[in-house]
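chain below, 180 aa
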Amino acid sequence: MRLRPATPDDLDLLRYWDEQPHVIASDPNDDWAWGVELARSPSWRELLVAEEDGRPVGFLQIIDPRLEESHYWGPDVPPGLRAIDLWIGEASDLGRGLGTRMMRLALGRCFADPSVTAVLVDPLASNARAHRFYERLGFRAVERRRFGDDDCVVYRLDRADAPWQPPLRTPSAGDPGLCD
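prediction:
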């Protein structure tokens, strides 16, 4: 598996995935504005496409919730956090371990920065499958919270609780750390 930056060339694919019932069920109220967002590269965000043997299989967003422009996570986010959004594109790819591999790569990217102390995710409160997924990876539920129209459970994985100790370095373009 490999994570690569999403580009404007991914626009049709991401719009297509956004229309899949399992993606809508996990993220029903967000408008990603792909046409705009794929053309931007703010320093606080990475938009990534996961590929398995060269085939796109999923999407990841990693943000610094303190710097993120909409203040989705609130106005008083402490430093040292990252937040991740993740989904598998095709329903036929669910249950194959792709999400686990994607999340492990994403966590490795997050914790490679020594200033990152924890990672947050916010699945819908009704998404029991996502809760089990994050708990298997070591995340702990820390609060139930509304984000706009969505009733969510905020999960947190502290660096000390990560199931491995990633290298303390920041990956760069062309870095072999983009692959596992």
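The beta strands are 2-5, 45-52, 55-63, 81-88, 118-121, 140-147, 150-158. Residues 98-111 form the longest helix (14 residues).
thats it, cya
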